Amino acid sequence: MSSVSPIQIPSRLPLLLTHEGVLLPGSTMRTSVDSARNLQLVRSRLLQGTSLQSTILGIIPNTPDPASDAQDLPPLHRIGTAALAVQVVGSNWPKPHYTLLITGLCRFQIVQVLKEKPYPVAEVEQLDRLEEFPNTCKTREELGELSEQFYKYAVQILDAVSLEERFKMTIPLLVRQIEGLKLLQKTRKHKQDDDKRVIAIRPVRRITHIPGTLEDEDEDEDNDDIVMLEKKIRTSSMPEQAHKVCVKEIKRLKKMPQSMPEYALTRNYLELMVELPWNKSTTDRLDIRAARILLDNDHYAMEKLKKRVLEYLAVRQLKNTLKGPILCFVGPPGVGKTSVGRSVAKTLGREFHRIALGGVCDQSDIRGHRRTYVGSMPGRIINGLKTVGVNNPVFLLDEVDKLGKSLQGDPAAALLEVLDPEQNHNFTDHYLNVAFDLSQVLFIATANTTATIPPALLDRMEIIQVPGYTQEEKIEIAHRHLIPKQLEQHGLTPQQIQIPQLTTLDIITRYTREAGVRSLDRKFGAICRAVAVKVAEGQHKEAKLERSDVTEGEGCKEHILEDVKPGSISDTTDLALPPEMPILIDFHALKDILGPPMYEMEVSERLSQPGVAIGLAWTPLGGEIMFVEASRMDGEGQLTLTGQLGDVMKESAHLAISWLRSNAKKYHLTNASGSFDLLDNTDIHLHFPAGAVTKDGPSAGVTIVTCLASLFSGRLVRSDVAMTGEITLRGLVLPVGGIKDKVLAAHRAGLKRIIIPQRNEKDLEEIPGNVRQDLSFVTASCLDEVLNAAFDGGFTVKARPGLLNSKL
């Protein structure tokens, strides 16, 4: 035995608490320093100290504790290792931390903790000397490399001070490890099949346990899970390419230590691959008559939409291999686009899954993340297929017009592959990295407008317009669906409340102004809550009457929610009879519950002077009526436009004034001084009320011309006329869009005559018959026809300014 000088450690040592492993005498390890106590120790002893003794630390193994920076010192292990700090590496980003390279010298035992702050210092007793066992240093170092995996066994070895006890614990461990390596080498030479290889490898993993200790049950269970996962991969019906990838990944998984971060990622990937419905599908119900009845019961009106769904069912009945269509329902909010998607799935007997796309601005939400990123996951399409468990569900892509775009990519572009019937049979998610067939999925997208949908994406979808409802349709929907739903939600019955159709019409016309029925549904909810209060109070009064045996007197018919002044009712009012049932909701009850009407018919009042006309506008929320007001004053010939107008609408205003100036002599239009130059010493101000709302589009051209013609002629526009159409500099009227929504808005406002471009006459076929009967339509190809229809008796030529003339 060579002569080695004994190592003497100081009797007082600063203690460094580490949870990254157990340092044994003679071994070397790196440890990170990020807790407050350890940081203070490094700064005070290693960075500022100059003597050799200042680099000797006491290393104490400590279990991971999320509250390591707490004020109280955690319980300390009795045995530690004196170590020499060989290297210190530090950084201040993202927060201060150091990495130490330390070498174990010898064991010590804590006698007494002398202080705890700012870092612990203890009086220690040296337990062994390194020169007594010079040939065992290599064995200690090799065993220390295993300490990260076998933390608790390394601690037991650290606590073994006696040489004989240490040999008893370490030699069997090393012998069994050698035997395991020999067995593993033998199995590789024979190249056995996968099942025999798993059986041969599993004992190797088990022999690493120290004799006399409990086996790692979690590891055994994990090994069993891997065997079951491998069996599922073999028996799955995934395509050949996906199967090859899974076999390759399961082989890598067997060779990985469980402590590696990639182990959990690979296992999650394989579990997803097994759970995906590669060939699992549901059988469609192809009974056309039953489907028609179901759609009619769930949704009133929407004839075009229901017709398209029935067409798909009919073709699917004739050809089972039909690819799923890509439908896009475009319409204002509250008309039932999302609920129709659910009904389609219910009609087909398919699973339904909704994907909300509003505000999505990362293409990884669609395509998934690559598995090289931390926290990677599949996209919403693949995740939805895993959720429903079949490969032919109905996917509702809600609010596809509200997709965003950011530095993380364009999700609308990622949807191009998903919504292309010629490509989606080979859709590749970044997380899966293998193709998945989406051709059997029925995609239904919803949007409020097509203006914000990229043209390439819009080209891949079949657009089905879902316009707003008429008043008659809203009444039917209310009494078929909305009122029964609200009664059920509020615990009421038809024997307790009655809402006549006339009351429903009042709510529609005076308390709501929308294309859909969401606000109408909320109004019914408010009525039901008010009635629920009265019913509950009535039940309380009935109980009091029964207890007091009050049987005389007749209850007066009570008006719902009648305001009662405090102190106006005597003390015996508590025994009054409850309200008669059912409670009838009339106009007076509406006023008590919902307050005064929010919308009153103000059309005739606003058209009581020249220079006002009514236009029709389309918005993503449906059609709206739009007032245009004009006034003139002395000035320098300037045209002022207000009301938050877009560039297109401003151009329409300039077109209108130019056309009127060029035709002023024809219609004998003059300014205040009698000149045919309408802007000679005259300023014109055009205003579009509701200035907080941005307005744009070409369809206001005819309305602006009519408004200015009324201003300069001094004649009133008919109070029951609304109009829409684009104009040219030569006075032609060009077609516009959204005719049905605009006509429905005019009908809701009580207007009777609608002026539309002649080339939009074909769009009148979409107007419900009852609405067409209530309205009079005038088709115009030029501005002369528009003006003749907008004024009583036509827009005649004047012999003298300010006087009406005969009809042209």
UniProtKB/TrEMBL annotation:
Residues 13-253 form the Lon N-terminal domain. Pfam families: AAA (PF00004), Lon_C (PF05362), Lon_lid (PF22667), LON_substr_bdg (PF02190). Its EC number is 3.4.21.-. Keywords: Acetylation, ATP-binding, Hydrolase, Nucleotide-binding, Peroxisome, Protease, Serine protease. One of its GO terms (biological process) is protein import into peroxisome matrix. CDD domains: RecA-like_Lon. It is an enzyme of class 3 (hydrolase). The active site is at S699, K742. A motif (Microbody targeting signal) lies at residues 806-808. It is found in: Peroxisome matrix. GO terms for cellular component: peroxisomal matrix. InterPro entries: AAA+_ATPase (IPR003593), ATPase_AAA_core (IPR003959), Lon_bac/euk-typ (IPR004815), Lon_lid (IPR054594), Lon_proteolytic (IPR008269), Lon_Prtase (IPR027065), Lon_prtase_N (IPR003111), Lon_prtase_N_sf (IPR046336). It comes from the Eukaryota. Coiled coil: none annotated. Residues 607-793 form the Lon proteolytic domain. SUPFAM superfamilies: P-loop containing nucleoside triphosphate hydrolases (SSF52540), PUA domain-like (SSF88697), Ribosomal protein S5 domain 2-like (SSF54211). GO terms for molecular function: ATP binding; ATP hydrolysis activity; ATP-dependent peptidase activity; serine-type endopeptidase activity. ATP binds at G331, P332, P333, G334, V335, G336, K337, T338. Gene3D superfamilies: 1.10.8.60, 1.20.5.5270, 3.30.230.10, LON domain-like, P-loop containing nucleotide triphosphate hydrolases. Interacts with PEX5. Interacts with TYSND1. May interact with enzymes involved in beta-oxidation of fatty acids, including ACOX1/AOX. ATP-dependent serine protease that mediates the selective degradation of misfolded and unassembled polypeptides in the peroxisomal matrix. Necessary for type 2 peroxisome targeting signal (PTS2)-containing protein processing and facilitates peroxisome matrix protein import. May indirectly regulate peroxisomal fatty acid beta-oxidation through degradation of the self-processed forms of TYSND1. Belongs to the peptidase S16 family. NCBIfam families: lon. This is Lon protease homolog 2, peroxisomal. It comes from Equus asinus (Donkey). The gene is LONP2.
